[in-house]
Amino acid sequence: MENNINSSKISPTAHITAHAWDMLGLSNAKYFVNQNFKFVFNIIRAFGLPYLVNKKNDYVYFMLEPRHRAIEYFMLSKFPYKQVVEFACGLSPRGMTFSENPEFTYIESDLTDMLELKKSKVEKVYKDKKIKRPNHKFIEADLFLDNLSEKISPLLTKDEKTVIITEGLTIYYDMESLKKIFSNIAKLLKKNGGGVYITDIYHEEDMKRNIFNNSVMNLALKFLQIKFYMDIDNSDEGESFFRECGFDYVESINPLLFSKQLGLKTKIPPENGVATIYLAHVF
Fold first, then answer.
1. Mean pLDDT within 192-199
2. Rounded to two decimals, what is the model's pTM?
3. Domains, in order of start, for the chain
């Protein structure tokens, strides 16, 4: 199958979200900020001009923060697993943050150019601070390739269940592409003793219900000349699709129902949520 997104188009979004994580004060986010993208980041925020008086319309608060904090909250509160693989890791600071715990093995993976950039930034920090972090690992991988499991498995401990994460990835792929990605992830978990895949999906029905937020996101992605998809209409369709891809049990969660637990300062009604978090299990 041909990958339907140019990898050169992923990198700008990684830089833009790096500014969002830094703005939110996430641990270690400052190390991944590229000031050359700050102007673009602010332009995209300005698509939701009412954020100047109402943070509910700032895409950082309605789109990015809930999903990011929810992924970490459910990873830590529901799954006491000690090995994590984050595919399409981009410039997320999670790897540096979670690998501070020596009991965690944190594996970051992306396509070659993005991973090299990420690794160089991390290694510079570790060198400057004289940090040794053997439990923080990097490996290039393409989620579309059938050898994904063979490539990642040697880095995993088979008697320990695994958490696999992707964030902000699914919107860039159609259903055929997602089926390949999800199936490969399910096979990887099955081969290595099971675990859970945590990701976010934007449903067509949620976006239609939230016309303003939908417009902001559409403008932002079109400005970046990125094609995007919202082929899954709702949670029922989403759960069924994950099961078709080889997962044994699937949960779909509106992160705004957990605003207090997530520490969200901007109060957004759950019905105004645009991202759904999926916990797809392999036993």
1. 97
2. 0.93
3. 7-282 (3.40.50.150)
